[in-house]
């Protein structure tokens, strides 16, 4: 199954939550199928679906007439994706705002991979800028690195003050 993540699923943690929601929904569907087959008991109400799961089900045409097997296949696809997904980690000096998070995730998904997972970390010692880790590559655009790479110039500027 070709999987396209909803825009609300940006980080590995978001993916884990989506996977848990999908597993709960698959379990409920399987239970309902067993109830229909075995007895005449009334079916229980459907669980409340998270917005991310609704978006994923709609994107895969599974919102209305999904069988428990269809949802199980979706759960298996999510599990496989979890283990094979590209991931980039962005470290910032302060907690990321919602707008910045969406901008960075959109940029990564349009320029690197449409289903890339973007994890955010905070490290105030970088002072500003960002450090990006993708695979075995680290790109350091932090203010700290810039300051340490120009130590002689800093001393010169401070001497003039």
Quick overview:
The chain folds into 2 domains: 12-84; 87-154. Helices cover 52% and strands 15% of the residues. It has helices spanning 12-38, 51-59, 68-84, 98-111, 143-149, 151-160; strands spanning 87-92, 117-122, 129-134, 137-142.
Task: Please explain how this structure is put together.
The chain is an alpha+beta fold and 161 residues long. It folds into 2 domains: 12-84; 87-154. Helix content is 52%, strand content 15%. The protein is built from 6 helices and 4 strands. It has a 4-stranded mixed β-sheet with strand order 2-1-3-4. Helix 1 runs antiparallel to helix 3. The model has no long low-confidence stretch (mean pLDDT 87).
Fold blueprint:
Elements: H1 12-38, H2 51-59, H3 68-84, E1 87-92, H4 98-111, E2 117-122, E3 129-134, E4 137-142, H5 143-149, H6 151-160
Parallel strand pairs: 1-2
Antiparallel strand pairs: 1-3, 3-4
Helix pairs in contact: 1-3
List keywords for this structure.
single chain; 161 residues; alpha+beta; four-stranded mixed sheet; 6 helices; 4 strands; elongated
Sheet with the most strands, sense and barrel status: 4 strands, mixed
Q: β content, as a range? A: 5-15%
Q: What is the straight-line distance between the termini?
A: 64 Å
Shape descriptor reads elongated
Main-sheet strand order equals 2-1-3-4
Helix fraction bin: 40-55%
Low-confidence stretches: none
Helices, by number, come to: 6
Number of strands: 4
Overall pLDDT confidence: 87
Radius of gyration: 23 Å
Give the class from helix and strand content and strand pairing: alpha+beta
**How many independent structural domains?**
2
Helix and strand sequence: HHHEHEEEHH
